[in-house]
Amino acid sequence: MNIYQADFNFSTKNPFILETLTLNRSDNADSDFHWHSCIEITLIKRGIGIYNVKEKTFSVSQGDFVIFNPMEAHGWEVLSAQMEVIVILFPTELSTNLIDSSHNKVITDFMIYGVSFYNKIEKSSEHYPEFLETFHSILVEDQTRKIGYDLIIKSDILKLFIHLIRYFKASPDSPENYRNRESGMLRLKKVFQYLYSNYNEKVTLQQMASLCYMTPSYFSSYFHQTMNCTFTRYLNGIRVQQAQKLLYTTEKSILDIANECGFPNLSNFYRTYKDYTGFSPGKERTRIEDSTA
Questions:
Q1: CA dist., res. 119 & res. 270, Å (int)
Q2: What is the CATH number of domain 188-292?
Q3: 3-171 with 188-292: one CATH topology?
Q4: Which of 8, 151, 167, 258 could cross-link with 263 by S-S, CB 3.0 to 4.6 Å?
Q5: What is the mean pLDDT of each run of 10 residues along the chain (293 residues)?
Q6: Is CATH 2.60.120.280 what the domain over 3-171 is classified as, yes or no?
Q7: Domain boundaries in the chain?
Q8: What pTM does this model have?
């Protein structure tokens, strides 16, 4: 497993990237984690899968939206034969082509403080229909490209941002923390690579600190500041992600999955899995069987 930085070039005229991707289950082994300095909005057009974001795991299916904030390492696993997704990428700084942000405090605050958003927009949310309608408007305008389509797309992009800021804002940030997270991700690269290759083994804070030439106490603080979660929670998140994949794609027993993913005992596995996903491993497997029946 590798974690790398993805770079994108945004044009001044159209400060966004829009693309439709077909992800294959056969590519799961090659689905390395990546992160970038822009915001990504992904709509699941068809298929089912899992998105992993830091220590969190999200099951997704047709119609779900997933939001990736700047500097959030994320990856995917396809559970159906294929999963088709539509991706829109936005730069963190809103282009002045969209609006004169100096006259709008909401946009100015977003540009300065780098607000974070919730990673998944639930279909049950009362604001989901309006968000979906705006997203679809962008797709239609980009496909038909009638006169003035670029102006409508820019207007809809601004509307999406306002929806995110108004309804799905998780927490504010500061410019200094934003820059620190970016450099922190690079400094922790060896740690991420080790964890994704050895999550099934006993991993200690001392081991990871030595990879970064830090003391355990400093590493613990540095990791938490960069990832907004503790080292232990991040490691357990990886283990839960791998366990969920095995529950979806194999018929292995829950005990075997717990052992294979590095959990010390079955009780710990059940407790941790439910803490991260909201379901016990047994309930998760029942949901999988019901969805494929």
A1: 24
A2: 1.10.10.60
A3: no
A4: 258
A5: 75 80 80 80 92 81 89 85 92 54 50 65 88 94 91 85 78 55 79 89 94 94 85 89 84 94 94 87 76 53
A6: yes
A7: 3-171, 188-292
A8: 0.67
